[in-house]
Amino acid sequence: MIEVKFIQSNGEQCVVLTEPVGSLMQLALANNVGSILGDCGGTCGCGTCQVHVDEHWIARLPSIADDEADMLSLSENLTPQSRLACQIKLKPDLDGLTVRVPEVQG
After folding, report:
1. How far is residue 61's CA from residue 41's CA, in Å, rounded to a whole number?
2. 17: which strand partners?
3. Local structure of 104: helix, strand or coil
4. Residue 46, CB half-sphere, CA atoms under 13 Å: how many?
5. Which among 62, 74, 69 is positioned nearest to 105, based on CA atoms?
């Protein structure tokens, strides 16, 4: 099992224990994490699952792909730690991952 922490824009936290399978977006949707919409179903086609990865974790993720970077470039909430949750695959080495969820997606 791994632990993932979602921090909402209002400071509310949702800590989820899960098997390391699927994507961060799937985990967020299954646990009703607010502001994660996943309108495209995880195809990297909408940008409605953006998260801001804690600085401690950003270097541990695979490099951002061109299609993800292109989608994120359309966001009003873009930061150096921005990633799409649908592109973050849950793995054992992500135990303790912390992400912040923007108030508004898109």
Report:
1. 21
2. 3
3. coil
4. 14
5. 74
- The pLDDT-based confidence of 106 (bands split at 50, 70, 90) is low
Task: Supply angle C-alpha 97, 41, 3, rounded to 5.
Answer: 20
Domain presence at residue 105:
no
What is residue 34's predicted lDDT score, i.e. its pLDDT?
A: 82
Instruction: Indicate the number of domains in the chain.
Output: 1
Instruction: Flag whether 10 is in a domain.
Output: yes
Is 64 inside any structural domain?
yes
Distance CA 21, CA 90 (A): 5
Q: What is the CATH number of the domain that holds 39?
A: 3.10.20.30
Per the domain annotation, does 92 fall within a domain?
Answer: yes
3-state per-residue secondary structure call for 71-84? HHCCCCCCCCCEEE
At a CB cut-off of 8 Å and minimum separation 6, what does 89 contact?
Answer: 22, 23, 24
